[in-house]
Write a sequence for this structure.
């Protein structure tokens, strides 16, 4: 459904313990101190905000979600209009109400 939220905050991310000396952030997605990203992942102010307040585990969630967004909307990562859509989705995923699934999205069937 178009109003379902994706990337609901899991209770426990599957992560390794922080290495001594790794940069820690108060993750906006998980609400606790976790290892932060090694570099700014996106250009501009949004990239800086993500670097300062998104954990590596939350970024992994975004990567998986962004693949779905790019496929469903048939986005070209080199196209400036597509980059704008990805940036808007990223903003919502981390700092908004959460990313919404594209209208008409049907999750793939599990390989059981």
């Amino acid at each position: 459904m178009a109003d379902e939220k994706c990337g609901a905050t899991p209770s426990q991310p599957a992560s390794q313990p922080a290495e001594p000396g790794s940069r820690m952030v108060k993750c906006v997605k998980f609400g606790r101190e976790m290892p932060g990203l090694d570099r700014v992942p996106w250009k501009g102010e949004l990239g800086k905000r993500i670097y300062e307040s998104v954990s590596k585990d939350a970024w992994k969630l975004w990567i998986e979600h962004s693949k779905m967004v790019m496929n469903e909307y048939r986005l070209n990562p080199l196209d400036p209009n597509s980059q704008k859509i990805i940036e808007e989705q990223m903003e919502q995923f981390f700092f908004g109400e959460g990313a919404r699934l594209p209208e008409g999205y049907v999750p793939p069937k599990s390989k059981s």
Strands lie at 24-26, 33-35. The CA atoms of residues 8 and 98 lie 8 Å apart.
